[in-house]
Specification:
With 262 residues, the protein is α/β, with parallel strands linked by helices. It is built from 10 helices and 8 strands. The longest helix has 17 residues, at 62-78. The chain is elongated, with a radius of gyration of 19 Å.
Length: 262
């Protein structure tokens, strides 16, 4: 990673008052959480995403779809936040007027200590009923134990405690719009920020990929952290090559060392 670019990025971050951190699948992959399509492994490999991640698929075979999402949720629960997640939590303590926006459906930001992350694509941990979107809860495993579910297992979804309708995963499926409140909050945060830090996202999934572009058009500095080039390279003020766990801890430390004059 270029030391001159890193130093400049640290200065920009340390001087910012309003910071947005925008994360994608790359940061969770470092914790061992497979990307969406990479979770179609083993016995699940006989399906494609469109067979498991649409409202039509759920209504046609709710036990199959719920089983896949429960398997994915169990895998996420066995993962741990990595240094990239922890560094993002530190940003919130150093720059209180900050917002975390994520395309990920896991809870690793929250378990790292981030408060109120905006989940553009929903969450594996926010199920709701199909009839009236009543929120549902999962039973807690005894003593925090996380069972490893077998691949390909069909699991009947629970029923809503309020209306008895089927409970569905709280994620955005193909053909569904992003949650309006989350998208509105994300767009507003991007339009108002001084710095947007985009981390581990491919920049190709729309409309989420517009968030860094909104910040850039509003005059914010965009710092991209990614090991590979992405379509966001021309948008970014600074491109830092590397993964979240590699780049963010050093960047965050340097940002506030620079601010403190050390």
């Amino acid at each position: 990673m270029d030391s001159v670019l890193s130093h400049r990025a640290a200065q920009i971050l340390g001087d910012a008052h309003r910071v947005v951190v925008f994360t994608g699948a790359g940061i969770s992959a470092e914790s061992g959480v497979p990307t969406f399509r990479d979770d179609l492994t083993g016995l699940w490999a006989r399906f494609d995403a469109e067979q498991l991640a649409t409202p039509e698929a759920f209504h046609a075979d709710p036990d199959l779809v719920w089983g896949w999402y429960e398997w994915r949720r169990a895998r996420v629960r066995r993962a741990e936040p990595n240094p990239g997640h922890l560094a993002i939590t530190t940003i919130a303590t150093q720059a209180p007027d900050s917002t975390v926006i994520t395309q990920n459906v896991d809870d690793l930001h929250e378990r790292a200590g981030t408060q109120a992350a905006i989940h553009l694509h929903g969450s594996l941990f926010a199920p709701r009923c199909v009839a009236a979107a009543h929120p549902a809860t999962f039973p807690n495993p005894p003593d925090g134990e996380v069972a490893e579910l077998p691949e390909g297992r069909r699991i009947p979804p629970p029923r809503c405690a309020s209306c008895a309708a089927l409970v569905r995963p709280g994620v955005v499926w193909f053909g569904e719009a992003l949650p309006e409140a989350a998208l509105t909050a994300a767009v507003q945060a991007a339009a108002d920020c001084d710095v947007l830090l985009t981390v581990g996202t491919s920049g190709v999934v729309h409309p989420a990929a517009e968030i860094p572009r909104i910040a850039a058009r509003a005059g914010a500095a965009v710092i991209q952290v990614n090991p590979e080039p992405t379509p966001l390279d021309p948008v970014a003020t600074i491109n830092l090559r590397g993964t979240a766990a590699q780049v963010l801890p050093a960047l965050v430390t340097a940002a506030w060392e620079t601010t403190d004059g050390n």
